[in-house]
Amino acid sequence: MTKLNHKKIQITVLMSVYNQEKYLKASIESILKQTYSNFKFLIINDGSTDNSIKIIKKFKEKDQRIKLINQKNFGLTKTLNNSLLKITSKYVARMDADDISHPERLEKQLEEFLKNNKLVLLGTAARYVDVNGKELFKSKQLKKYTDIKRFKYYASPFIAPSVMFKLKDFRNLGFFNPTFKYSQDYDAWLRFIFYNKECKNLNIPLIDIRDHNNNISNKYKKEQGIFSLTAKQLYKTRYKVDIRKLKSKKI
């Protein structure tokens, strides 16, 4: 793949970690081995009680692109919102601590943004794997924005840890709804769609999603379903989150 000439464009990769020592090493390595290297890797240790913080610190000593925040357990939604207020880069890529980004992920996503200035949110397809990394199946994502709008109520149109977005546009939409413990991503993507922010998917797998018992999607499936229904209702009532009271320092 041709290397991007826009090496001055910085991306922030955002990862929240809570007790993922089993998969964390592979997840961090997958970001550090990206073909596009101009990024900050913001990792928040959200009050882990296992060896996650030790693993992160070990990588941080070797790679200055890693920025570590060590905090008590706030939960994913609050952690992501607080972190997004600290970020200054134009683009943000989400990542989960038990998944693996393919080496060309950031490069391919950034190329799409540079092709279309109106694009504000970009997801990808995924390869779902078991605890040992063996492939289970590949997802098929809705590629076109028109299709995403049409089928938005059937399921979340984006795989959360695969997305890259423009920070300014997400900030204007209020980031993640602070009242959502689960399915906060689905609620956010619906607001992108409601306010006609152009979004799409690359229908090629650029991330491995690990299927295991402690995965939030498996562990809290019922709760996620309830919050998903709430997100659809909020979409219909034109709900918008107000984050003006949130405070944070830049990094």
Give structural notes:
- It is a single chain.
- This protein is an alpha/beta fold and 251 residues long.
- Helix content is 34%, strand content 24%.
- It is built from nine helices and nine strands.
- Strands 1, 2, 3, 4, 5, 6, 7, 8 and 9 form a nine-stranded mixed beta sheet that branches.
- Helix 1 runs parallel beside helix 2 (52-62) and helix 7 (184-194) packs parallel to helix 9.
- The longest helix has 16 residues, at 221-236.
- The two termini are 32 Å apart.
Provide a short characterization of the protein structure.
By secondary structure, the chain is of the alpha/beta class.
Task: List the topology elements.
Elements: E1 11-17, H1 21-32, E2 39-46, H2 52-62, E3 66-71, H3 76-84, E4 91-96, E5 100-101, H4 105-115, E6 119-129, E7 135-138, H5 145-150, E8 164-166, H6 167-172, H7 184-194, E9 198-210, H8 216-219, H9 221-236
Parallel strand pairs: 1-2, 1-4, 2-3, 6-9
Antiparallel strand pairs: 4-8, 5-9, 6-7, 6-8
**Elements, N to C (H/E):** EHEHEHEEHEEHEHHEHH
Mass-distribution shape: globular
Mean pLDDT: 87
Q: Compute the gyration radius: what is it?
A: 17 Å
Helix percentage range: 25-40%
Sheet with the most strands? 9 strands, mixed
Number of strands: 9
Uncertain stretches: 239-251
Secondary-structure class: alpha/beta
Termini separation comes to: 32 Å
Percent range for β-strand residues: 15-25%
Number of helices: 9
